[in-house]
Amino acid sequence: MSTFSAPPASSRHRDTGHRSRWTPADLSMIAVFAALIAAFSLLPGVPLGAGVPITLQTFAVMLTGILLGPSRATAAVGLYLLAGLAGLPVFSGFRSGLGVLAGPSAGYLLAFLPAAFAVGLLARAVLRRAPAIRRRARFLLLFAAAMTVSFLVVHPLGIGGMMLNARLDFRAALTADMVFWPGDLLKNLLAAAVAVTVLKAFPRLAAKRR
Question: For site-directed labelling of 78, which of 57, 72, 91, 165 has its Cα 20 to 30 A away?
Answer without folding.
Answer: 165
